[in-house]
Specification:
mainly alpha; 9 helices; globular
């Protein structure tokens, strides 16, 4: 997953693709899928290629949800292209070392993205919560509050802020410490930082082609 400042920025940049009437529901939908870390529901219920199909976005919340799916798909494609040296293999299943490296990159990108727009304007919209999969609404609300607390009153988050956020979501402390070490390492590497700053621009310029290809490959027809 991209982190939520990235998801909110991406949703805002894509909002003209939809006829958004309720920005609160749209922004809440844009981070909803990752509430599964707190509610414990199966990832397939919140992250699936079927959410890319145009007919999925039947309301503003689902439109935001769709941007989340697009963002994750496009981020994964772009970071593999820009960081072939760090991701030489496209793993079909969970790989812990890849997760550590990817999470460190996402933290740094999220720090950069939150400085590109006034995220504090949009945090109030996370007071809106919905549980479309029948999961605990209290769990969804808890997730949204974790994100509000991560970003509020800050121009940029710190590594410590982000590690505390991950600890609240469930990964064990030892894994989070490895993420901390990798993030600190990358922040000292100018070449890595330069490439991270290319990710978002590349995501925006390529997302339509990437989504169209995935829909074609998955469903056998370009439905965009």
């Amino acid at each position: 997953m991209s982190l939520e400042a990235t998801h909110i920025r991406f949703a805002l940049d894509l909002q003209n693709e939809y006829k958004i009437e309720n920005i609160e529901q749209y922004i809440s939908g844009a981070i909803y899928p990752d509430s599964r870390y707190v509610t414990g529901i199966n990832r397939e219920l919140t992250h699936s290629d079927r959410f890319l199909l145009p007919e999925f976005a039947t309301d503003d919340f689902k439109a935001g949800w769709q941007t989340h799916q697009i963002c994750d798909l496009v981020y994964n494609d772009v970071r593999r292209k820009l960081f072939v040296d760090l991701f030489p293999i496209s793993y079909d299943s969970y790989n812990e070392q890849e997760w550590i490296v990817s999470t460190a990159l996402k933290i740094i990108q999220d720090m950069d993205d939150m400085q590109a727009f006034d995220i504090k304007k949009y945090l109030k919209f996370l007071k809106y919560s919905r549980n479309p999969n029948g999961e605990s609404i209290a769990g969804v609300e808890n997730y949204n509050n974790i994100m509000i607390n991560l970003y509020k009153d800050k121009e940029v988050t710190t590594i410590e802020d982000n590690i505390n956020m991950w600890l609240a979501l469930g990964p064990e402390a030892g894994l989070c410490e490895q993420v901390r070490a990798k993030t600190e390492e990358f922040l000292k590497d100018p070449a890595i930082l330069t490439r991270i700053k290319l990710i978002y621009k590349e995501m925006l310029s390529s997302y339509q082609d990437i989504v169209n290809k995935r829909i074609l490959d998955k469903f056998g027809a370009n439905k965009s």
